[in-house]
Amino acid sequence: MAFRRADAFANRLRVMSDPSRIGALSIRELVRYYRPRAVLTRQLNTRYWGLPPSFFTSSVRIVDAGGGPQDALKAKRLFGQCWYEGINIEALPESSRASGGYDRYHLVDLDETDLSFLPDRSYDLVVSSHTIEHLKDGQAVVARLCAKVRPGGLLYLEWPSLESITFPIRGRGLRFDDDGTHRHAYGLDQIRALVARQGLHVEFARRRRQWLRMLLAPFLIVYHSVRFQRLVLYDLWDLTGFCYTLRAAQPIEG
Questions:
Q1: Which of 32, 94, 87 is nearest to 65 (CA)?
Q2: For domain 2-249, is the CATH number 3.40.50.150?
Q3: What is 181-221 written as a DSSP string?
Q4: CB 151 within 8 A of CB 251
Q5: Which residues of 38-62 are buried (b: 16+ CB within 10 A; e: fewer)?
Q6: For 66, which of 21, 87, 104, 185 is 20 to 30 Å away at the CA?
Q7: Taking the domains of the chain in order of start, what are their residue ranges?
Q8: Which of 90-104, 147-161, 196-210 has the lowest mean pLDDT?
Q9: What is the pTM of this model?
């Protein structure tokens, strides 16, 4: 385990020293990175947590398998230059301004495609958040997504934990079966091993524990319960360990 972590850390150093990714940041870029709204958005969206400032000031290509209406807009606020591509079985609301956030949107069933319409090894960040549990074969989709990460790029996955299957509170968003469209639960080691077999270096694979989300949970519960007009406890995911997160880097060739 120690050797695997050391290897992943060494690879990340190579990724961060990639000339196409790193450069001297200007004052304007640093101000953009550390402005309060950007810091808050990164802290509340684990797919962007811990990325170096240079990642947000470069021109990046992102593909989001299962991306929702707001995901592209959040990315456009964070990144200096960002191409955001989405894949989803559901169409975006035509009346929503969120539909304009996507540079390209593929109305595709992930269970029925080999993703050949996406170029291999071409994306700086490949994201799939709370999607694989809805699929007939989520592991096959993860393997296909790994092939889309460019050398030096990153893969981010998030999905419900095995522990969520037996959580004692029902009907409030804390159990796997609270969502009737969930099909399969995957273990953390299971997905970690799968990603490693595709040649990526796993930087972390763990339960999601965002400190800011945990601190804000009481306020967010009230807000979302009023919004949905019923008691929902999605905002306790970080406290209960509802979901796993994984980030992995595609090694730089040579």
A1: 87
A2: yes
A3: T------HHHHHHHHHHTT-EEEEEEE---HHHHHHHHHHH
A4: yes
A5: beeebeebbbbeebeebbbbbebbb
A6: 21
A7: 2-249
A8: 90-104
A9: 0.87
